[in-house]
Structure formats: structure tokens, C-alpha cells
Amino acid sequence: MSWPVPKPFAYFLTYRALFPADVSRVRSILLGVDKKQPVSGREYACGLSYVPVTRPVRCEQTVLRRFVTGCNMFTEKEREAVYKVIFKRRDIRTFLPKPVPQEKINRILTAAHHAPSVGFMQPWNFIIITSDEVKKQLAWAADKERRALAVHYEGEKQSQFLNIKVEGLQEAPVTICVTCDPTRGGSHVLGRNSIPETDILSTACAIQNMWLAACAEGLGMGWVSFYKKSDIRDILEIPPHIDPVALISLGYTDDYPEKPILELVNWEKRRPLAELIYSNKWGKPPEDNEEGAIDKQQPLHM
Ligand SMILES: Cc1cc2nc3c(=O)[nH]c(=O)nc-3n(C[C@H](O)[C@H](O)[C@H](O)COP(=O)(O)O)c2cc1C
């Protein structure tokens, strides 16, 4: 019998038709993906794309090419946009009275709710505050704390501290109190037994999502943590076991600085990243990294 295609290829096609799971698995292993997990016969995972193994070869090649080039879900422009929002985002403390559309608030909250969380615990709640009276009380609590903290500085440093605007709670049209419920999910949340504060860390991830989403929405967002938790619990009637992690000010602004406000007022500056990276052991700088090279590298969007 004569073969219409070279023999080894014909064997391969027959084998693939009979045992698609094996072919898929071999391919995954060759590509270094999912070495330990079995790959299903009909589909093999490529990041978020799933591809039927029995599809025509041409289609598989297209998928494989995409896969080999880095399993990229994003176009170049989309990737740049992600970096752009990371670098452009700032902590904002000056707000315009212009109301914030509800759809924008909803998208920001949805972004928060899609943050990672330990054991998928989702320990957060969001109290949306628009009442002027309540905002006034929150601003009072923050100002009381700011004055209390001023005792930690002396002389010129103290007056510099007192001159820095640390909140815009009353100006901002919306304040969101983000809380963390350490009891959510019961006493055995997967992965939380070793490091209990992973609940707060998860809540911080949600807040960072809000920050990036607010920036992408053309809004300013400020994170206020100058307060005694007991004051905030009293004002917002939060139960004692719930942790008020952050007060978030949200609104339009005409003052969106290029650099952190604390850098602009010479309070602190960004440290060289090269000094913060170690190789294998604490304190050991990477050998092959030309000194400071990483700090000279331009971010993608610039
Ligand atoms: C956990 C946390 C708490 C913060 N608390 C305050 C605060 O109470 N008041 C304030 O003005 N800024 C606060 N900030 C904002 C920081 O000052 C700001 O992120 C930092 O100066 C860097 O500036 P950037 O966010 O514009 O890059 C807080 C930020 C974080 C992450």
C-alpha cells in the first residue's frame, strides 16, 4: 500500500486521532507547560486559551505560534496601557466637587472585587459614604490623628509634616471605607493559617485594583490611613471584629502630579531599584547585573 503522506507523519496522524490525550501531553511537556498535571484529551491549556487537540493542524500551528511567543493574551498597545496606568497612578488629595458617575464607581468596585485573596476569602466590604455630615466626622478623626502624629517630629520637620496635606476627605465627593472581615470563610481559610495577616494583604490587593481602575477612569484616588480605628468604627457603626483598613477618597481632580506628592515636597524620594534586588541570598547583589542598569531602563509607556 502506498502512503499519501510520508510514513512517520501518517503514523503520527493515526496515533493522534486514536490517542489525542497523549499527543497533547507530549506537546505540553516539550513546551515546558504543565509538566505534572495531566492534560485533558480534548483541550490543552495555553494560559487562558483552550484548544481542541483534534482540530486541523493549521489551526494548532497558529495557536502554538501564539503560545511559543509567550502565551500573550494582550496586544502591544494593551500591554503598554497596563504599564502606563501603573506608572501614571498617583495618590491624590485634592478633589473637584463634580459628582462621580455611578457606573465609574461600580466598575472600580468590581475591579476591587476581582483582586486576589488568600484561599479566595474575599474578606472585603465597601462602605460608600456620600453624606457631608459623615465625611466631616471622618475628616475630624483624620485631623486629630495628624496632630497627634506631629509630636514624632521636631522643629522644621514638624512644621513640614503639618504642612503636608494628608487627606481630602471632605472635598472628595465620595469616600469609600474598605474593611476586612478576618472571620470570613470560617477558621480554616485555605493558606491563611500560617500567615493570619494575609486577610489584610488581600484587602490591600483590592485597594490597589481600585487605585489602578480609578486612574484608568480619569479619577483621582487617595488612600487615607491617618485615623484611630476605634474612631472610624464609632462613626461608621462598624462591628468590633471588622477592620477598617482604609478610607478611600474618590473624585475628579485638576491636580494629578507626575511624581508622588511626598517626593515633590522633598519628604522622601524613590529609592534606586538596583539597591533593592538581591541574588539568591539576602544582601547579595546580582553579579551579572551592570550596576544601576535596571534604573536606567525606560518604562514601556515612556
Ligand atoms: C497603606 C497606605 C497608606 C497610606 N496612607 C496615606 C495617608 O493617610 N495619607 C496620605 O496622604 N497618603 C497616604 N498614602 C499614600 C502614600 O503617601 C503614597 O502612596 C506615596 O507617597 C507614594 O505616592 P504615589 O501613591 O503617588 O505613588 C498611603 C499609601 C498606602 C499604600
Which key features would you list for this structure?
single chain; 302 residues; alpha+beta; NADH Oxidase; four-stranded antiparallel beta sheet; two-stranded antiparallel sheet; 11 helices; 6 strands; 40% helix; 12% strand; globular; binds flavin mononucleotide
Radius of gyration: 26 Å
Hetero groups in this structure are: flavin mononucleotide
- The number of helical elements comes to 11
Write the CATH architecture name of the largest domain.
Answer: 3-Layer(aba) Sandwich
The pLDDT mean sits at 83
In this structure, how is the largest beta sheet organized?
Answer: 4 strands, antiparallel
Poorly predicted ranges (pLDDT <50, ≥5 residues)? Answer: 28-59
Could you tell me the number of beta strands?
6
Determine the strand fraction and express it as a percent band.
5-15%
Termini separation: 64 Å
Model description:
- The chain has 302 residues and is an alpha+beta fold.
- The protein has 2 domains: 7-68, no CATH class; 77-270, NADH Oxidase.
- The protein has helices at 7-18, 20-30, 57-68, 76-88, 102-113, 132-149, 155-163, 198-216, 229-236, 261-264, 293-296; strands at 43-46, 49-52, 124-129, 174-180, 220-224, 243-251.
- A hairpin with a 2-residue loop joins strand 1 (43-46) and strand 2 (49-52).
- Residues 28-59 have low confidence and may be disordered.
- The site of flavin mononucleotide has 11 residues, from strand 5.
